[in-house]
Amino acid sequence: MKLLELHIDGFGKFHDQTFVFHDGINVIYGKNEAGKSTLHTFIRSMLFGIERGRGRAAKNDLYSRFEPWENSGTYEGWLRLESGGTVYRLERKFRKDNKSFHLINETLGKEEEPTKALMDQILGGLNETTYNNTISIGQLKSATEEGMVNELKNYIANLNTTGNISLNITKATSFLRNQKRSLEANLVPDASREFTALLTEIRNVEAEIASPEYENQLAALQKAREQVKGVIETTRTEKDELDDKLQKSRQLLKDHGFSDRRSVENRREEADNLYLSFKRASEECEKKSRKIRMILFFLLFLGGLGAAAFCAFTSFPVIGSLENGYSFSVFPICALLAAVSVVFLGLAVLCWKKDRGFRRQLKEAKERLSRILETYLSDGTISDGSMNTFRSRLDEFASLCDMVSRSEAAVKKYLEDIDSLQAKQSNCSELIEKQQRTQWELEKKLEHLSNCRTRAKALKRTLAENDRIREECAAVDLAREIMTDLSSSIRDSFGLYLNKAASSYIAGITGGAYDSMSIDENLGVFLNTRTRLVPLESVSSGTIDQVYLALRLAAAKFLQNGQEEEYPLIFDDSFTQYDDERLHTALDWLAKAYGGQLILFTCHRREAQMLRARQIPFHLLEI
């Protein structure tokens, strides 16, 4: 695999920048804070992605640390690499709300699905962990030589026993041992005995409370009382609703002047009588014969009175002829005519008074009947239709009176039922009180039984927890046994390879100062010369860093064993501890011994100067 080119649209301090890598050695120079770590992290992120942490961890994770300084909406880039003769372009967007990964096969000119199998093929089985532990080579950063020795020994122990720097058999075994002790400390040894005793006591108490004398009828009595109470409330509700309707009905009757059905009948009878009187008076008033007779009698009165007056005026000559020897008087005739006139006048007055009486009767009947109709119909017009409507209206009031009477009877029945139900409720309360006294002793036993069951339930959980702890302890023992066997197997195979490969590298890195290195069964590291074995604790920090580099190269070589292409090696200020002579030697050896791509991040110019002085081809990038 070989890195060809990368472009950063936005990542940390970089924005819209492109970097090209060549075959062989690539020196990336930059002062402190120039962005070497950002570029290194970008390469790793393009190969394996970058995930944002959650919660408080998100504040200081890689995602947050390398968010773009400019144009924060663009957090992306691409990386071109060659694998197996095919050029691929990896395009990634890291923004959480716009995250994507595209894989372009530039050789075939098409986009491919970035499946795990395809990525393993392109990266040669490399994952982020092995990348960090092998081809990405840093330096031992412990502040003291003693710290560097301990860190290197720990690295060797992990490689020698697991073949992977990310696994630490010693720490894992120690952790499992402490885990077992912690689990065993949580065991409750007396739980089983106490649980058996509690079960016996529970059975004895259950047998006691099963006696007929403790038969609990309290729930049934309370239920009966609640049912009676519910019926009482329902009955009262129905009674109150009926009372409300009754009150409204009474008020309606009262507003219309009724108190009972008899008052309605009286009003109907009164209206019917008035209507008959009205019709009779109307008929009498409409008769013309009476008016004719009255006029005729009055005319006869006037005629008789005129005749009497005429006779009286014309009778004087007749009276004066008495002295001539005869006598004749007209006064009786005048008196008779006057009397007949008075009779006719009396008959005329009688007809007039009778007509006047019928009209007065008509008026009174009409006024009274109109007031009644207007009261109940809002219209005082008198007619057969209005009377029929009035009678129908009174029928409604009569029905309302009947309903009131029935409602009053129903209310009375409700009151009787409520009294009966209240008596029944009181009886239930007495029975409940008696039952409560009877059940007092039972409640004490039940309380004790409940406590026993609660304790038993807790102990049951404790027993289950004991079983779980014992299973976990057994699992811990099995894990320790498996790790021990696995560690021995790995040490027998990989340990031999590690001694051999690291020895070949240490000779080249140190320029022959040390022929080889060896790691004994106690993980003691020795550097071999022609005359003696030098313990790791006796060498300088620069040499310790060389040993570390040899081990990392050996692990990387082991990782890509069997593959035709070599991984690119990325050095991140790996030669800081080297003096000039060590650096000359290491660069010469790397240029000759390693055929793959080398990428050196450095904050010094001496690597480029030495390569240029020794005429070793390299590509320089300054950032």
Provide a quick synopsis of the model.
This protein has 623 residues and is of the alpha/beta class.
Keywords for this structure?
alpha/beta, six-stranded antiparallel beta sheet, five-stranded parallel beta sheet, 623 residues
Helix content: 55-70%
- Our measurement of the CA-to-CA distance between the termini, rounded to an integer number of angstroms, reads 24 Å
* Strand percentage: 5-15%
Spatial sequence of strands, sheet with the most strands:
2-1-4-5-6-7
Could you tell me the radius of gyration in angstroms?
Answer: 65 Å
- Low-confidence spans: 142-149, 161-167, 316-328
Question: Tell me, what's the shape?
Answer: elongated
Q: Say how many strands there are.
A: 14
Give the quaternary arrangement of the chains: single chain
How many distinct helices?
16
Largest sheet: 6 strands, antiparallel
Provide the residue-averaged pLDDT. 79
**Helix-strand sequence:** EEEHHEEEEHHEHHHHHHHHHEEEHEHEHE
Structural class, please? Answer: alpha/beta
What does this structure look like?
By secondary structure, this protein is α/β, with parallel strands linked by helices. The chain has helices at 36-48, 62-65, 116-123, 128-133, 145-162, 169-185, 191-209, 218-255, 261-286, 289-314, 316-320, 331-377, 384-509, 541-559, 580-593, 606-613; strands at 2-10, 17-20, 25-29, 76-83, 86-93, 100-105, 110-112, 136-137, 516-519, 525-528, 533-535, 569-572, 598-602, 618-622. Strands 2-1-4-5-6-7 form a 6-stranded antiparallel beta sheet, with helices on one face. It has a 5-stranded parallel beta sheet with strand order 8-12-13-3-14, sandwiched between helices. It has a 3-stranded antiparallel beta sheet with strand order 9-10-11. α8 packs across α13 (384-509). The longest helix has 126 residues, at 384-509. It starts with a strand and ends with a strand. The model is unreliable at 142-149, 161-167 and 316-328 (pLDDT under 50).
